[in-house]
Design brief:
The structure holds 2 protein chains of 2 kinds. By secondary structure, chain A is mainly alpha-helical. Chain A has 11 helices and no strands. Chain B is elongated, with a radius of gyration of 23 Å. The chains are: A mainly alpha, B alpha/beta. Chains A and B meet through helix 1 and helix 4 of A and helix 2, helix 3 and helix 4 of B. The structure holds adenosine-5'-triphosphate (ATP) and magnesium ion (MG). Chain A: InterPro entries: ABC2_TM (IPR013525), ABC2_TM_bact-type (IPR047817), ABC_2_transport (IPR000412), Nod_factor_ABC_transporter (IPR051784).
Chain lengths: 272, 353
């Protein structure tokens, strides 16, 4: 053995940052090793956008007028953030079931790094997903009409939604512990994704269904970003529609406030 | 023994999962610089013990020290001096072998260059250098296992825990693991390995703790454990199956404990005290009764038989793992408390040799 095997010195904070980055980089290396997986992941929401935009779009009417594709793009942006939960869940449950989490826990690394790394990697992935979708949307004639400031606020709300999904995903991954149960998760996530105002305005639905759809946390984000982008279809007289900007912040923050401590507790309980 | 000479010391270690008791007052003592085998059947509590010692699991009771450090109160310090190789390979499937080792190296806080160099060394050593760039998902089971072991060795740990390191390995990979363990020991490290293979404990371990139902039921060197069961064993193979009861009866007269009978191989075997006297007396009796003998063997007991004698039942995988057939020939209903103990010896719950 020729290599000197001494750990470098450094403060706790320095190592928390460095270890978090090492775990983040692990995901970046996954993407580099398996670029096809990454690309398929980016293309999937674009496919939904194209399908609904061109296949069904002709038959859709936006109340109050306006182009359906202008209406659709913000919805799919939010939907792609929602589906991110599956990636987070798969990554967390795979590590737990394969014993990788245990190996990390038996090492002298910062305890926070596993979660920090997961967070940063997933948020980078979310930003890439948004960028790809925005390019596709622009190509379809979508655009933002209220200037760059509100547009960035809209992207901020989308990432906030992804952050909420991240913590739900981490918690479910720690609870279910098997990557195979992602199927069960999909059965849950898809209806939530579709029971929203992504593809159709709630006004066009039966009263009770419209209410359910308006209370779907994702719908708040969609309405809010339609407003911020200046895209059609964000109006409405209900309280939820009137306060969508507020609710687009409140819902995700509530979810993080609930699932962050639950996840921490679950993580601690791995040692029980 | 001064406690500073002990790399691992557990006292009254307890762990329950719901209403299932996995560790029930487990006392382990591992001398620094030795290889210690923890031998036990499926569900004995081996993995649980290793998980407590490697800070992954909090015990419900008792204390555990590794390198003098308390695994609960000084967990962070313990993690700096241990290496863990769990029962199932714990590596990232989507990374290559090299990428895995470099990542773990960085997480052990080696510098970038040191982590890379160390990964290279370990890949060489475990014959993974050629495949070091393939993702682990394309590795065979043996390669994964070797990579897992390499990951546990990154920091050259003072105390290494190996949980059933050779289960499911081909003979060549198994030999490599054995060599690595021997080398580590020569380098001054302490190794605690769990195993269901008695042969493995016999071959590698300086000391053995036999555990069953979460308790240590016997401890000592492999040789001491063997001598506890009886100095020698005699196996008689008869030509006609009908003679087997007669042979067993003859054996019973000279043996220290009831004979094991295996009709399939027409063999009766039992531990004996004085080998020569027992053998000549046995042959005289058999001759007088007209029992035709095909073969007689005088031999040291295997650890399988040791296990059987110490715990009252066969070691979990020993029969299936193909060590010797004798454990499989244990009489049904022997029960765990049935006194199949050492000849003339007591059958106390725990024996210090
Ligand atoms: N997470 C758990 N929840 C409930 N029971 C458990 C859990 N882990 C282990 N057990 C039980 O505790 C006992 C000891 O298990 P342990 O895994 O420590 O045994 P082992 O000696 O490692 O067995 P094996 O040779 O099969 O690996 C077993 O009866 C097992 O079923
Ligand atoms: Mg086990």
């Amino acid at each position: 053995m020729t290599t000197r095997l001494e750990a470098l010195p450094g403060s706790r904070l320095k190592w928390a940052v460095a270890d978090g980055w090492t775990i983040t980089r692990r995901d970046l290396v996954h993407w580099a090793n398996h670029p096809v997986q990454l690309i398929v992941g980016l293309l999937f929401p674009i496919m939904i956008l194209l399908m609904f935009g061109y296949l069904f779009g002709g038959a859709m009417k936006v109340p109050g007028g306006g182009d359906y594709r202008e209406f659709l793009v913000p919805g799919v942006l939010a939907l792609s953030m929602m589906f991110g939960i599956e990636a987070t869940f798969t990554a967390v449950s795979t590590d737990v079931s394969r014993g990788v989490t245990d190996r990390f826990r038996s090492m002298p690394m910062a305890g926070s790094a596993v979660v920090v790394g997961r967070c940063v990697a997933d948020m980078i992935n979310a930003a890439l997903t948004l960028a790809a979708l925005v390019l596709a949307g622009l190509a379809m004639g979508w655009g933002w009409h209220r200037g760059i400031g509100p547009a960035f606020a809209a992207f901020g709300l989308l990432l906030l939604l992804r952050l909420a999904m991240l913590w739900v995903g981490i918690h479910l991954g720690l609870v279910l512990r098997s990557p195979e149960s992602v199927m069960a998760l999909q059965i849950l996530v898809w209806p939530v994704g579709f029971l929203s105002n992504v593809f159709a305005p709630p006004e066009t639905m039966p009263g009770w269904l419209g209410t359910v759809v308006e209370w779907n946390p994702m719908s708040a984000t969609v309405t809010a970003i339609r407003e911020l982008f200046g895209n059609p279809g964000w109006g409405g007289d209900s309280w939820m529609a009137q306060h969508s900007l507020l609710m687009a912040v409140v819902w995700p923050v509530l979810m993080v406030a609930l699932f962050f401590p639950l996840s921490v507790r679950r993580y601690r309980r791995l040692s029980r | 023994m001064a406690s500073t000479d002990l790399a691992v010391l557990t006292e009254g270690l307890r762990k329950r999962y719901g209403d299932k008791t996995a560790l029930d007052g487990c006392d382990l003592a591992v001398r620094a610089g030795t290889v210690h085998g923890v031998l036990g059947p499926n569900g004995a509590g081996k993995t649980t013990a290793v998980r407590v010692l490697s800070t992954l699991l909090r015990p419900d009771g008792g204390t555990a020290r590794v390198a003098g450090l308390d695994v609960v109160r000084q967990a962070a310090e313990v993690r700096r001096v241990i290496g863990l190789v769990g029962q199932h390979a714990a590596v990232d499937e989507q990374l290559s072998g090299r990428q895995n080792l470099e990542m773990f190296g960085r997480l052990y806080h080696l510098g970038a260059r040191a982590a890379r160099a160390r990964a290279g060394e370990l890949l060489e050593r475990f014959r993974l250098a050629d495949t070091g760039r393939k993702p682990v998902s394309q590795y065979s089971g043996g390669m994964r296992r070797r990579l897992d072991l390499a990951a546990g060795l990154i920091l050259a740990p003072r105390v290494l825990f190996l949980d059933e390191p050779t289960t499911g390995l081909d003979p060549r990979s198994r030999n490599e693991v054995w060599e690595a363990v021997t080398e580590l020991r020569q380098g001054g490290a302490t190794v605690l390995l769990t195993t269901q293979y008695l042969e493995e404990a016999d071959r590698l371990a300086d000391d053995v703790s036999v555990i069953d139902d979460g308790k240590v039921v016997a401890r000592g060197t492999p040789a001491e454990l063997k001598s506890r069961v009886g100095a020698d064993r005699v196996d008689v193979v008869v030509r006609r199956a009908a003679d087997l009861p007669a042979a067993a009866a003859a054996l019973a007269r000279v043996a220290g404990a009831g004979p094991d009978v295996d009709p399939e191989t027409r063999t009766a075997g039992a531990p004996v005290r004085d080998r020569i006297t027992a053998l000549s007396e046995l042959l005289r009796t058999l001759d007088a009764e007209g029992v035709e003998v095909e073969d007689v063997e005088l031999r040291r007991p295997t650890l399988d038989e040791v296990f059987l004698a110490l715990t009252g039942h066969a070691a979990g995988k020993a029969a299936r793992g193909g060590a010797t057939g004798v454990a499989g020939a244990a009489p049904a209903g022997g029960g765990r408390t049935a006194g199949r103990g050492a000849p003339g010896g007591s059958d106390e719950k725990e024996a210090r040799v």
